[in-house]
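User: Here's a structure from my thesis project, written as structure tokens. My advisor, Dr. K., wants to see whether a designed sequence matches the one we expressed. Can you design one independently, without my sequence as a hint?
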């Protein structure tokens, strides 16, 4: 007894263990019965098992959640890679389509001047423009290394753009026909005997006059280069949008909308005399 008093904690623990052991044995022997002691044992065991079971279920749920989260992350990364691949394919397709359109555009511009006339051509991209809303002057990415010289004629798929006024080894500056310092002689496509001269008005359009003040020109007439000066014959210049009589100067004046959209030029062709 003295030993039990000195080691009372151990004694209590052993006693509780023995009691639980007896209850467990009795419960096992009386499984399925309505024995009073068996019900008490089952209640005690259930009381102990509940927090253990809940803790175990929570741990299992946490582990499953971790694995599911990892799976979601892996799926997300796979979707990102697939999206990047599709975006790359789409970009390449759009670029290919744009390059094809540019080739078609440049090939169309070559129809204005026949190679038999002693010209060859250099395609170029606009790399810089003046700060105005129109391409009055701009820079292209080809120059003397490709044979471009001052006063070389510049066109695009829509018609006459202008001429080169300054050249470097791999660049050139272009002054467009809408600049006030640029003059273009023209003829009316409907009747090639009708001639005139145009220059830029500083507002994105062209103004000029007919050499014959009685020339029967009308609104909507298409104008092309006459070939009498710098520009080869037959390049579209624009359409007449207004015809007025200047009685004091005895001139028939015309206002022309350009064939080229000078607010958006990307590709041009430079015509070089051989």
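Assistant: Designed independently from the structure alone:
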């Amino acid at each position: 007894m003295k030993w039990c008093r000195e080691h009372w904690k151990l004694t209590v623990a052993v006693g509780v263990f023995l009691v639980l052991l007896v209850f467990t044995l009795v419960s096992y022997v009386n499984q399925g019965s309505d024995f009073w002691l068996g019900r008490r044992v089952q209640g005690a065991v259930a009381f102990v098992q509940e927090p253990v079971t809940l803790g175990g279920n929570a741990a299992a749920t946490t582990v499953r959640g971790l694995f599911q989260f990892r799976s979601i992350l892996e799926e997300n990364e796979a979707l990102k890679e697939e999206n990047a691949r599709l975006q790359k394919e789409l970009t390449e397709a759009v670029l290919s389509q744009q390059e094809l359109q540019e080739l078609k555009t440049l090939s169309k511009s070559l129809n204005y001047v026949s190679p038999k006339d002693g010209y060859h051509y250099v395609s170029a991209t606009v790399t810089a423009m003046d700060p105005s809303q129109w391409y009055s002057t701009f820079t292209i990415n080809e120059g003397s290394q490709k044979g471009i010289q001052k006063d070389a004629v510049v066109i695009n798929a829509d018609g006459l753009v202008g001429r080169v006024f300054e050249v470097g080894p791999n660049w050139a500056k272009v002054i467009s026909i809408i600049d006030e310092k640029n003059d273009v002689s023209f003829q009316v496509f409907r009747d090639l005997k009708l001639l005139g001269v145009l220059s830029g008005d500083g507002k994105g359009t062209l103004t000029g006059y007919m050499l014959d003040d009685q020339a029967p020109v009308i609104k909507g007439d298409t104008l092309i280069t006459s070939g009498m000066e710098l520009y080869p014959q037959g390049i579209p210049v624009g359409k007449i949008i207004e015809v007025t009589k200047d009685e004091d100067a005895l001139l028939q004046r015309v206002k022309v909308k350009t064939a080229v959209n000078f607010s958006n030029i990307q590709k041009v062709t430079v015509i070089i005399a051989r």
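When you compare it with your expressed construct, this may help: The two ends are 128 Å apart (CA to CA).
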